[in-house]
Amino acid sequence: MERIILNISGMHCASCAGNIEGALKNAAGVQGARVNFALEKAEIEFDPRVLRAKDAITVIEKAGYKAFIPEEGIDRERESREKEVRSLKIRFIIAAILSGILMYVAMGHCLGLCLAHCITQNSPLIQFILASAVLAAGGQFFSRGLRAVFKNRQASMDTLVALGVGSAYLYSVFVSLAIWRGNAAFSSNDLYYEVAAFLITFILLGKYLEAITKRKTSQAIRRLWGLRPKTALVIQQGREIEARLEDLRVGDLIAIKPGGRIPVDGEIIEGYSSVDESVITGESIPVEKNAGDAVIAGSINKHGAFTFRAQKVGRETTLAQIIKLVEDAQMSKAPIQELADKVASIFVPVVLVIAFLAFFFWILAGKSFIFALTVFITVLIIACPCSLGLAVPTAVMAGTGRAAERGIIIKNAKSLQIARQIKTIIFDKTGTLTIGKPRVSDVFGCAGSEDEILKLCASLENKSEHPLAEAVVEAANAKGISLTEVEAFEAVPGKGLIGKIAGGNLLLGSRRLMEEKGVNLQSVDEGIKKLETQGKTLMFLAKDGKLAGLIAVRDTLKEFSKAAIDGLKKMGKQVIMLTGDNQRTAQAIAGEVGIAQVLSEVLPQDKQDEIKKLQSSGNKVAFVGDGINDAPALTQADLGIAIGSGTDVAIEAGDIILIRDDLRDVISALDISNYLLRKIKQNLFFSFFYNSISIPIAAGLLYPFTGFLLNPLIAGAAMALSSVSVVINSLFIRRYKRNI
Questions:
Q1: Are 390 and 683 in contact (CB under 8 A)?
Q2: SS3 for 188?
Q3: Is beta strand 300-301 parallel, antiparallel or unpaired with respect to 265-276?
Q4: 58-95 core/surface letters (b: 16 or more CB in 10 A; e: else)
Q5: Are 380 and 625 in contact (CB under 8 A)?
Q6: Counting runs of H as helices and runs of E as strands, what totals does the chain give?
Q7: Residue 425: enclosing H or E segment and its boundaries?
Q8: For residue 715, which of 693, 736, 734, 739 has the smallest C-alpha distance?
Q9: 424-428 and 408-410 as β-strands: parallel, antiparallel, unpaired?
């Protein structure tokens, strides 16, 4: 299966998105399709043996819309949005000027304005010409509305507009013909041209404002792409040559001058500087960089100069991966959006039924045709479901973009709803709460000198990839101890190592491994307790079944671990630490950060089971981790939060990624998710409340009691402003600041 994202132009309501989604799902070879109205994109999963990308574009075009494959810099998307804004602006200005003239001709005498005799005499003809020109400016509503019915066999927002405005216009044409034929039963006062014209004008204004605000919601992605320079200085044969970003290859040597922006990911091979990585990590303090250090595309060099070798280019760079994750999140649908989608799918037919029922009700109630027509038009216009279609996706777009700017990548919209329900947060210890680079603090020899014990341990650990192994090997190297070849090496997951050196059978690992192999530790029991209560992890070395010595290793807490735990407690969260360390060592580390509940001596393969136990009691559980062995736990948890400085596997498994190595961002991730979900609910409430209140009023519910009948022009303005209000509310997300 392959996956492709297409940009779409021509969508103007949630029904449009539904039409496209339905057309794609019915196409041969398509396994799944999602269309985002606010983002104006379609995500399609398809079988490449049956369907090609251009075939998917053809399907969309047959449905009456335009589609194209987005380019890396999203320039075509921006051009499309800018073109739409310009077109709507021109159409609105034309419609507004002509509608103003039409209002002068139609209502001037009522306002005491002086009208030339020729204008008064030819008022129906002049109004017809002006109204026809205004409707031509808004002709897109009629063409799309009719196409939706006759081609897609579904009514859309444009269908409501076309039917409402068209009814006013056609009735006025009928009256005009009657006047021209000398029918005394009709006069210019019976014309409805100004209503039709001003409705189109208001709707064009609403669409123009909506297009502007929708454009702003996608600025986060555009800003991220804008972080890349267009060219780079590549060193070839000792000369600096300016090359396009698209031409860079892995292995290229790139020169960075003071103030320059780094074009791709790489490793410094010469020079020294400080680099501002805030655009990627959100960390405002520049990071010192020397030879051997990594640099990230999009970050800014400060004062020094250096040369680095490109390691990741194009879509493989960290920046490109971040953008992809944000785009994927914006394309995803939150479960709460399913409600809005279902309502929007049946909303237009229901409104049509209500409008016709209201029309015939007032006719049967003895009211005039004009009265009933006014009600009919008002119901159709005020009930357009644009705000429903925009409520969720605009908030998700703005929220995920804002989170990305703060170094928090929310990979899917579903995570937003789950984050609000989280009661328990489990932290991995090594590499998450601690730095993950332990150091040997103590070496004790029971059968041999400390250096001999360290040599044997380092020789075994030299074949291991465990975080503690590096610490032991580094300690041996620091003392200049040469390592010995190990035979019959075997790693026992979560417990330790087995091997032979110079004919001796060696065991190196945890207390559990020693107990399983029958090694007696009673002689050092008091020393073990003392070291473990200091938060040190112990590794025991046994030779030929007897204890030979032990090594104590101490990891250091990350700078903001305690602050993060304290903040989560203030939010009312239950915090648990999960580790493979023994109980005393785990309790010592947990005590330093203020965690009361500890799950210790948990093997990597058992982390999932511990999370399942908590979930079985109805808890919504989040897990925070960074290592390869954390991936199953991240997947099992209701919400997986991966530390961005961790492994690619953990990042892939997580639902939320923290780019910075700062655990306070766990608080920010939960807080911004809650804030974003509140905005979504506000948008949905406003949309439902608006339609629930406005439709009965438009149908004339208040008329028998108060004599009030809603004017179609006010309905048109209200409909336009409802959509704009929802998008503006979503844009306030860009001002988000953490309150905790």
A1: yes
A2: helix
A3: antiparallel
A4: ebbeebbbebeebeeebeebeebbeebbeebeebbebb
A5: no
A6: 27, 25
A7: strand 424-428
A8: 693
A9: unpaired
Q: CB burial class (10 A; 0-12, 13-18, 19+) of residue 491?
A: middle
Paired strand residues for 444: 550
State the residue for tokens 């393969």. Answer: 605
Helix (H) or strand (E) holding 255: strand 253-256
Tell me the residue type at 304: G
State the pTM of this model. 0.67
Report the C-alpha gap between 527 and 287 in whole angstroms. 41
C-alpha span between 378 and 160 (Å, rounded): 10
C-alpha distance from residue 463 to each of 44, 82, 460, 502, 604 (Å)? 45, 59, 6, 16, 19
Q: How many CA atoms lie within 13 A of 120 on its CB side?
A: 8
Helices within 365-502 (DSSP H only): 369-382, 386-405, 414-421, 450-461, 467-478
Q: Count of residues for the chain? A: 740
Q: What tokens were used for 711? A: 């004017």
Residue 242 has a CB neighbour count (10 Å cut-off) of 9
Active site residue 451: no
**The pLDDT value given to residue 726:** 82
What does the block give as tokens for 515?
């107990």
User: Phi and psi (nearest 5°) for 318?
Assistant: -60, -45
Strands (E), 461-563: 487-492, 496-501, 504-509, 537-543, 546-554
Count the alpha carbons within 13 Å of 656 in the hemisphere toward its beta carbon: 34
Give the dihedral of Cα atoms 336, 673, 413, 155; nearest 10 deg.
40
Write the DSSP string, 69-84: PPPTT-HHHHHHHHHH
Query: Which pLDDT tens digit goes with each residue over 309-339?
Result: 999 988 888 788 777 777 776 666 666 666 6
pLDDT digits (tens, 9 = 90+) for 337-395: 666 666 666 777 888 899 899 999 999 999 988 899 889 888 888 876 667 767 777 78
For residue 379, which amino acid is it? V
659 phi and psi angles, rounded to 5 deg: -65, -40
Question: C-alpha distances in angstroms, 478 versus 166, 454, 458, 474, 475?
Answer: 86, 11, 12, 6, 5
Distances (CA, A) of 408 to 286, 322, 397, 430, 654: 19, 10, 14, 21, 12
Coil, strand or helix: which one is 531? helix
Average pLDDT, the chain: 82
The rounded radius of gyration (Å) of the Cα atoms in the chain is: 34
Relative orientation angle of helices 369-382 and 712-731, to the nearest 10 degrees: 10
CA dist 266 and 390 (Å) reads: 40
Tell me whether strands 656-658 and 546-554 are parallel, antiparallel or unpaired: unpaired
Region at 502 (left for phi over 0; alpha for psi -120 to 50; beta for the rest): left
Residue 538 confidence class, pLDDT cut points 50, 70, 90: confident
Q: Could you report the per-residue pLDDT of 69-102, keeping only the tens digit for each?
A: 776 544 556 666 778 788 889 999 999 999 889 8
Q: What are phi and psi of 392, to 5 degrees?
A: -85, -50
Residue 344 · residue 389 · CB < 8 Å = yes
Query: Comparing C-alpha atoms, which of 74, 75, 65, 69 is closest to residue 54?
Result: 69
∠ CA(737), CA(418), CA(321), 5° rounding?
70
Question: Among the options 328, 428, 630, 638, which is catalytic?
Answer: 428
Burial-class residue 188 by CB neighbours within 10 Å (0-12, 13-18, 19+). middle
Pairing of strands 294-295, 265-276: antiparallel
